[in-house]
Structure formats: structure tokens, C-alpha cells
What we know:
Helix content is about 35%, strand content about 15%. The protein is of the alpha+beta class. The protein has one domain (about 10-85): Glutaredoxin. It has a 4-stranded mixed beta sheet with strand order 2-1-3-4, sandwiched between helices. Helix 1 runs parallel beside helix 3 (about 70-80). Glutathione binds near residues 16, 17, 55 and 69.
Amino acid sequence: xxxxxxxxxxxxxxxxxxxxxxxxxxxxxxxxxxxxxxxxxxxxxxxxxxxxxxxxxxxxxxxxxxxxxxxxxxxxxxxxxxxxxxxxxxxxxxxxxx
Length: 98
Ligand SMILES: N[C@@H](CCC(=O)N[C@@H](CS)C(=O)NCC(=O)O)C(=O)O
């Protein structure tokens, strides 16, 4: 297990095009992630909503921090902020700076 990188978790539904786009972006980044497919585990939908405050898929978490859906993930990438979040030592992601 890679303890140097924050855990990346994505809630998806296999039929969702935004999920496919988010998975593609994460794969392009070469990061490991854990996918929770709500079609396979529908009982985890409430957990996703509780953690993210949202009801749509995908929902992405980096180091436990809710990132949002594909649009949010792509916007972070466009701003050049995604790589740093993904590369942050586990436990320090999103700690901000001065
Ligand atoms: N802007 C969102 C759109 C996400 C979205 O519309 N997801 C659809 C599935 S592709 C959804 O969750 N619909 C409601 C549902 O499936 O419960 C994003 O970029 O993630």
C-alpha cells in the first residue's frame, strides 16, 4: 500500500458518463484510487451523501476531503491544483499555506 499519497476515493455508477470522464482523468494522472460503484453497493449512497453533501455521482474524495464531481475535478486540474493535491503527503493534503 502506498502510504505516501492521500487516498483517492470515487463513488460512481457504471452507467454514468460523468463518472467515466472522472475515472479517465484519474487514470491519466496515474493515481491509485478506490472506486465504490453504487450500482453494486447501493447501500453506500447515504454514506456518499453524508460525506459530500451531494446526491449526484461521481463524488471524489482526496485524503478524505470532498472534491465534488467531474466538473469540480476538471476545474481543479485546469487551475493546476489537482496534481499538488494528489501528490501531497498523506494527511497533509489541503492543509493550505501562508
Ligand atoms: N456536474 C456533475 C454532474 C453529475 C451528474 O449529473 N450525474 C448524474 C449521473 S451521470 C447523476 O448523478 N444523476 C442522479 C443520479 O444518478 O442519482 C459532475 O460533473 O459530476
